[in-house]
Amino acid sequence: MSRTTRKTSIGLLDLVFFALADSTRRSILEQLRKGETTVSQLAQPHDMSLPAVSKHLRLLEEAGLLNRRVEGRTHFISVNTQPLNQALSWIEKQRQFWDASLDRLATLVESPAAPSKAIPSSKPHRKS
Length: 128
Known about the structure:
The protein has six helices and three strands. The protein is mostly helical. The chain has a domain at about 5-80: Winged helix-like DNA-binding domain superfamily/Winged helix DNA-binding domain (Arc Repressor Mutant, subunit A, Orthogonal Bundle), CATH 1.10.10.10. It has a three-stranded antiparallel beta sheet with strand order 1-3-2. Strand 2 (about 65-70) and strand 3 form a beta hairpin. The radius of gyration is 27 Å and the shape is elongated. The relative contact order is 0.12.
C-alpha cells in the first residue's frame, strides 16, 4: 500500500494513534521536544540500525508528526504538533461525552427510586 493510499484509506487520526502506539516512536518524539535534530542524532540512543530508525521516522512522517529538511546529505527532523492537537481534540470530545454520560448514570443510580406501581404477576394466585 502506498503512503498516499494509506493516508486516505486509514485516516490521519488512525495513523497518529498507530504511530504513537510504539515506544520507539514515542521516544523519538520526546527527543524532538528539544528541537530540530539530525536522523543520526535521533538514532543514537536506540539499540537499532539506522535503517530501522528510518522506518520509524517514515511512519511518523506518514502520520504528519514530523517535518524533514534536507541540506546536502544531512536530514534534519522536527516535530509537527498539528496532528497531536487533532488527536487531543478527539480525545477531549470523547472524555466530555463519557464524563457527561457517567454523571447522568450516577445521578440516576443515586436518586431515590420513584414509587413503582405493582406489576401484576403472570402466575395465577392460589387461594388457600
